[in-house]
Amino acid sequence: MTAPEESAELLPDTRRALLHRIAVGQSEGRTPSLVGAVVREGQLVWTGARGGTDGQTSGADTQYRIGSLTKTFTAVLVMRLRDEGLLDLGDPLAKHLEVPEAEDATVAQLLAHTSGLAAEARGPWWERTPGALRPDTADLFGERPLVHPAGRRHHYSNTGFALLGALVERLRGAPWGDVLAREVLEPLGMTRTSLAPRAPHAEGWAVHPWADVLLPEPAEDTGRMAPAGQLWSTAADLARFAAFLLDGDERVLGAATLAEMRTPGAPPEGRDWDGGYGLGVQLARRDGRFLHGHVGSMPGFLAALWVSADDRLAGIALANATSGASIATVAADLVRITAEHEPRIPGPWRPLPEADPALLALTGPWYWGPTPFLLRLRADRGLELSPVGGTGRASRFRAEPDGTWTGLDGYYAGETLCIVAGEDGAPGHLDLGTFVLTREPYAPADVVPGGVDPDGWRPR
């Protein structure tokens, strides 16, 4: 009997719980409006809103400024350049741009905020002033452009992403915004994402901390800083972007590159860390889940998008207030509520369409010295190595055309697994990054570095 597929429509209790979370977020956060959305299995399955401005109720098609969520879009453009061979993540910026302040920082360090660059552009406050005040990249830096040695630690840098936008422009020969529209927004059908607001859009407000009154916030064109936080978007458009971040789209970026982007690019700081940063993607641990996405803020606006790959869910929250609402928590709670009310139904188990007898013969127990491991055969000739008992180094491996396998995760990520034939031509042992795994624990005839005592196993 086939397991039932998940319905595209959420259950009434789930929808009410989600609406309650949005209502609490808007009320306690004192935001003029708050819009939320849930994406499941790549589909927008719920949207909800509370409040509005100028007598208009906000909705999934209302534009909000998304602030630093823009950075993930910029990172996608950079990774496209990498995948096309136009740059390497290890390239120093000086190879492509003349920016003395950051010439030693690599592309990867800029993406991961480990370049050491100052957090903000030269004053006055760039988010509230015209970008024309900083017309060239040289105008982005103050008296102390570097606050840490490159590569030493994570230090969030808006100026770093301004430089990545300039890098895109240099290698594409077109303005950053035009490249973004052509290479990302149009293929993903994000017709309501833009550099400037388009009606219907929310107005940005500051809410007085001690009184229920509002003050309008300016919405400036940030110019050179645009790749760090310029974009406007909607809940519906961000749902399309969330689906892309989950599974990829070969017209933009493949799933393997997106998985690379959400690999931590800097060590965590503090004892009780619950977040990190990959390559243009924020990482968080919430309620036992690993989330990736980004949060954003600009004067008058807050935004958050979190994806849980394990749950196949994403939560989006947008508000038009400078501060107050815990927007990252709201978006994470939308994922949690949906997952708790409607746990993901696993797809049905199916046997492999075909199995190479030679690979099938490799499955089963192998030993690294006295430590037992199990080798399993997966789809597309992939292999999975896991410790018996659950404690130890586990990795999945991708089959390569030359007959080897490459580690995809864990300790052996990027390492090579080889099958070494014995004297009879049959598989003798596994070579995994120089480690030898044998069919028996330290059998005397096995090829084990350092040799095996000829008397073999014995009582003490």
Automatic annotation (TrEMBL):
UniProt source species: Streptomyces himastatinicus ATCC 53653
Domain Beta-lactamase-related: 26-339
UniProt lineage: Bacteria, Bacillati, Actinomycetota, Actinomycetes, Kitasatosporales
Superkingdom to which the source organism belongs: Bacteria
Any single Pfam family the record assigns to this protein: DUF7586
Residue ranges of every copy of the DUF7586 domain listed in the record: 356-439
InterPro entries, alphabetized: AmpC-like, Beta-lactam-related, Beta-lactam/transpept-like, DUF7586
Name of protein: Putative beta-lactamase
